[in-house]
Amino acid sequence: MTDKIRNIDKNTVWIFGIATVAFIAIIIVVAVFWDKIKANFENKSWEKDIEDEIKDSGQNGLLTPATIRQIADTLYTAMKGWGTDEATIYDCFGRIYTKTDLLKVVQAFGVQDGKTLPQYIIDELGTKERRRVNQILANNNIDYAF
Fold it and tell me: Which of 9, 53, 54, 115 could cross-link to 119 by cystine, CB 3.0-4.6 Å?
């Protein structure tokens, strides 16, 4: 057995060492970025679900694509970083009058910092604030709740 070990040349040892280090590095990278990798796969089905729900809603939206994009961007700005601008969030949802438009805003928001708009709303707003958002939607005859 010791003769076989002595006969292994230095190149084989180096190749094995490099392969081992590369394998460990790949495992570390996957572990560190697992949430983002997982979210990417989940988002693909999520996007399809939103598209299907928009088609099934049977409503035409009232908002232009530019307005939808502006509302999505404003919502992100109101929630990102430290603090949450609840007044801006309430104002944005107050401008949405159809479920189709709400779904289009959710779709336009997409995934920001690994979270969808519903996930952001749940993370950033307390029960009282979410209840107010849901009441604004209900007042606009939108049957959707966060």
Answer: 115
Residue-wise pLDDT for 33-74, tens only, equals: 666 666 555 555 667 676 766 666 666 778 899 999 999 999
Dihedral through CA 16, CA 17, CA 20, CA 22, nearest 10?
-110
Q: What is the pTM of this model?
A: 0.65
Residues 46, 108: one domain? yes
Number of domains in the chain: 2
* 146 in any annotated domain: no
Distance separating alpha carbons of residues 91 and 73, to the nearest angstrom: 13
Q: Which domain holds residue 26?
A: 1-32
Is 89 part of any domain? yes
Contact 130, 85 (CB under 8 A): no
Task: Say if residue 59 is in the same domain as residue 124.
Answer: yes
